[in-house]
């Protein structure tokens, strides 16, 4: 998205026939399609993207970069959405794919990575398949994050009813522990925390359940341009069917499905890394396979 400020003339705001109170009519254009809808007054870039995804999500290739453009009467054509733009008048916007197809490389560096630990809570213990195994692997990942100085964000789904994070998971030094009721971890507090961390490009995601909170979190992060690495041996569901189909679906969207050892060794990258010995000791014993090899 272009960062330059553009002078865009105000358009008459009649409110639009049928527009709900407090909203502004917007025409959303993508490819050969144009669909009228509305957004809350003051909506910015993120809400426009969400609306495009809701209208055209089945046609948008998430492997590509897009630019949002606004039709400017002054120029008689579309211009890149101005920085800090907020919808205040009736307008027309379009989503334009860039020509360059992006390849998901999956590079990880400590300085541009954040770990997300999702809902590893006590009440899930008897229900989640291989819960003991994924707790063990999750704890290994958090130890690695502390060694490498990587920020960690932890959520707990409705902790009043479902309990806190299990005692085996050491939360020492984590950046945030947040309650939530939404399935996705991408709640306002998490978005604010990500905005405060400079240069975040990758999220390493693990926890429960794979087909619900993990899946919805991953898809939302990718929609925001963040590369997601799901640690397969540290995520699970109540059903192995749900778990495996979710991992397959996510991999098909370009999300990287990986293992804890691969993540930790990719983050040190070199045996001469000052923390290599500590990471090597951490992974000396192989991680439990937690049912992932059941189809082999």
UniProtKB/TrEMBL annotation:
UniProt xrefs under CDD domains: YcaC_related
InterPro entries referenced in this protein's UniProt entry, alphabetically: Isochorismatase-like_dom, Isochorismatase-like_sf, Isochorismatase_domain
Coiled-coil annotated spans: none
Pfam families in UniProt: Isochorismatase (PF00857)
Domain of life of the native organism: Eukaryota
Occurrences of domain Isochorismatase-like (ranges): 113-261
Family recorded in the similarity comment: Belongs to the isochorismatase family.
UniProt-recorded name of the protein: Isochorismatase domain-containing protein 1
């Amino acid at each position: 998205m272009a960062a330059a400020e553009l002078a865009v003339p105000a358009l008459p705001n009649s409110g639009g026939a049928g527009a709900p109170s407090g909203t502004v009519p917007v025409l959303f254009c993508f490819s050969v399609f144009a669909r009228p809808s509305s957004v809350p007054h003051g909506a910015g870039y993120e809400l426009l993207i969400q609306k495009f995804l809701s209208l055209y999500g089945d046609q948008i290739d998430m492997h590509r970069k897009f630019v949002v453009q606004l039709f400017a009467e002054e120029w008689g054509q579309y211009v890149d959405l101005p920085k800090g733009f907020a919808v205040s008048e009736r307008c027309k916007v379009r989503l334009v794919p860039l020509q360059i197809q992006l390849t998901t490389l999956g590079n990880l560096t400590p300085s541009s990575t954040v770990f997300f630990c999702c809902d590893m809570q006590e009440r899930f213990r008897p229900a989640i398949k291989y819960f003991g195994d994924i707790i063990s692997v999750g704890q290994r990942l958090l130890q690695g994050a502390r060694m490498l100085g990587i920020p960690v964000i932890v959520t707990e789904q409705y902790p009043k009813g479902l309990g806190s994070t299990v005692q085996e998971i050491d939360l020492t030094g984590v950046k945030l522990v947040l309650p939530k009721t939404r399935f996705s971890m991408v709640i306002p507090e998490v978005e604010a925390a990500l905005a405060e961390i400079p240069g975040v490009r990758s999220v390493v995601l693990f926890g429960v359940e794979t087909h619900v909170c993990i899946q919805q979190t991953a898809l939302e992060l990718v929609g925001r341009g963040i590369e997601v690495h799901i640690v397969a041996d540290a995520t699970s569901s109540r059903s192995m069917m749900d778990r495996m189909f979710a991992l397959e679906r996510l991999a098909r969207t370009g999300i990287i499905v990986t293992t804890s050892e691969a993540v930790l060794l990719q983050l040190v990258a070199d045996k001469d890394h000052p923390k290599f010995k500590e990471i090597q000791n951490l992974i000396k014993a192989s991680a439990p396979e937690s049912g992932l090899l059941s189809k082999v």
